Amino acid sequence: MKITHIVGVAGVIAFAACGSNSIYGGGGGGAPCDGQGADVVVSATTILTFAPESILITAGKKVCWQNVASFEHTVTSDTGTVLQSTLAGGTFYTHTFASTGTVTYHCTIHQANGMVGKVVIQ
Asked: d(Cα 22, Cα 45) in Å, to the nearest integer?
């Protein structure tokens, strides 16, 4: 009985770890993005990552970044000003992508720790 439980937990952990880097990330949900009408939710986490790190959407879709940490993160485009927001702990930022292309972004505070992301818009 205990072995089954451990295997089940390991499976959930493995699924979560694989899903965090998927280009097809569907986001989660949950506060603070609840009620924002987002098509995809990306979490800025306490372990200095965007989850999922990469997402694939179609033009016209709305993405909500939610800071689930108690400290500040940013959502900042690598080039241009497509994405530009500072998120205090527990806050959110939304953006609707009108045209196709690829937008890479980072957290200016934690970029050196590898906190980067990508949105591919078809």
From this structure: 16
Best CA proximity match to 90, nearest among 74, 62, 66, 54: 66
Query: pTM of this prediction?
Result: 0.76
What CATH number is attached to the domain comprising 31? Answer: 2.60.40.420
Which domain range does residue 24 map to? 2-121
CB atoms within 10 A of CB 52: 23
From the CA atom positions of the chain, what is the Rg in Å?
15
Q: What proportion of the chain, given as a percentage, has pLDDT over 70? A: 75
The Cα 38–Cα 79 span in angstroms is 24
Q: What is the pLDDT of residues 81-98, one digit of tens each?
A: 999 999 999 999 999 999
pLDDT confidence of 24, banded at 50, 70, 90?
Answer: very low
Q: Tokens at residue 46, please?
A: 């306490």
Alpha-carbon distances of 88 from 10, 73, 80, 120, 121, rounded to whole Å: 32, 7, 22, 26, 27
Rounded Cα distance, 80 and 46, in Å: 27
